[in-house]
Automatic annotation (TrEMBL):
This enzyme's EC code(s): 6.2.1.1
UniProt keywords, alphabetically: Acetylation, ATP-binding, Ligase, Nucleotide-binding
InterPro entries: AMP-bd_C, AMP-bd_C_sf, AMP-binding_CS, AMP-dep_synth/lig_dom, ANL_N_sf
Signal sequence bounds: none
Name of the protein described by the UniProt record: acetate--CoA ligase
Superkingdom, taxonomy of origin: Bacteria
All residue ranges annotated as the AMP-binding enzyme C-terminal domain in the record: 463-541
Pfam family, one: AMP-binding
NCBIfam families, per the entry: PRK04319.1
Ranges where the AMP-dependent synthetase/ligase domain occurs: 42-412
Amino acid sequence: MQGDYQLQDYEKAVQNFKWSDTEKEFSWHETGLMNIAHEAIDRHADSYRKNKVALFYKDGTRKEAYTYNDMKRMSNKAANVLTNHSTLERGDRIFIFMPRSPELYFSLLGALKMGAIVGPLFEAFMEGAVYDRLSDSEAKAIVTTPELLDRIPVDKLPHLQTIFLVGESIEEDDKHIDLNKHMKKASAAFQVEWLERESPTVLHYTSGSTGKPKGVLHVQEAMIQQFQTAKWVLDLKDEDVFWCTADPGWVTGTAYGVFGPMLAGATSLIVGGRFSTDNWYEAIQEYGVTVWYSAPTAFRMLMGAGAGPVGQYDLSSLRHILSVGEPLNPEVIRWGMEVFKLRIHDTWWMTETGAQTICNFGSLPIKLGSMGKPVPGIEATIVDNQGNVLPPNRMGNLAIKKGWPAMMRGIWNNEEKYESYFMNDEWYVSGDSAYMDEDGYFFFQGRVDDVIMTSGERVGPFEVESKLLEHPAIMEAGVIGKPDPVRGEIIKAFVALHEGFEPSEELAEEIKQFVKKELAAHSAPKEIEFKEKLPKTRSGKIMRRVLKAWELNLPAGDLSTMED
Ligand code: PRX
């Protein structure tokens, strides 16, 4: 099977493929010891790909290119600085909290080379969100920029010993280290830490419907699936220029912004800065992007910008486009057909799955509205609430048979939560509802829980509600996702005020800013509705289901548990 990278015969692969076949791609197949950064970078730097560009970087002010050999040297230098200027050891947590830049990638790979566990943080996170993640994981070090420094509450984080700063004229002391300055002098040679299959690599915090964000832990072995899907699903070949638009703060930005394409030895483009129609089309034209991985919200924004901008750029280099994160509307697929003369391929997976699991492959006919079929080696099904497998065309819980290579291996500090994802110790239950048709295609129906997907970003209502309750005016808060034609969902908050406070537009604005300042812009409610009182269960839990029904003018369903 090894070498059948085009997945020409899906059915045959489903029957014959074993993940152990993919392992033969890597040298650790013989030694048993590995390091994902070695496999993604050094392995190619020591091959015919040595002088091939691994990373193009472009933003407003910088335009750079790094070969696999450059990436090896720079990540080695980063690894040396991280090791020599902190007490960081194998297994310790280091966070990377900065806008996309080459230094972000050097540090991430360098940290992995020395065996640390990397927690990537989206640059938009504010103090409260940063604190929750660093304190839960007892992070020892962080790589950041001077601009973001005041969002790191150092005094409240006793484990945080070292802050590596990337920027101009940095003042150093025991705790603050100028990364670039030391990288200039550091050796470009580094002995990577050799690790085991189950050694942890990346810790991605993500939201559920209850509780604080959870640290989803991934391990070395995920590389098997990230590599294989980069071949089968992204269809990456040596001559491709691949652009994944996701930030490494989210799982797409690590699994397919770093690992997948680099394990496959491809050339990746990283575009810094914010979304803009012209910048995006220009990037495709300038770098001759051939394979492009983005999200429905971005496609809808491009679609909204109309045909005008499309005509101004040469986008003919594109040969394969993929989407992830939210339902891909048939309307968007039709737009893609018109504008790019290509079908957009949907892929379904999540932070917890660590890599793509249900996808549309080049060799499969696409059914509009379907996310595709399971990746060979993945067993997916629909189960009822007891874990019984349901027949085709019945809606239920989308579940995956436990034990795929990229599966999360733990929730940081929370074994009980981790166990709760698995039903009968057999099925990982995703929290999505879906059905499978008689041909084995899966169709997404929605979240089972109250998790909000806004612009492809996953937001837990509980985290937002908790923050709202910290505002002096707010007595009760309930947060839901409200359907939105561009963003999929927007965050809407219902709030009841303490005595002495009156609803007003100014107060609504102040509340939005409060959440924005404390958590992150993407977690802030776009709409606030004031209520005298919120619907609660007798035990005092806000009934988001009822809020949603109010919002959508739908029947509220069973209200037997609601307080009088
Ligand atoms: O609800 C599903 C939605 O995104 C959730 C996972 O979010 P996150 O862990 O942030 O990972 C996003 C990207 C890997 C899922 O539970 N989702 C993801 N892909 C799709 C999707 N919903 C519909 N169609 C998809 N293709």
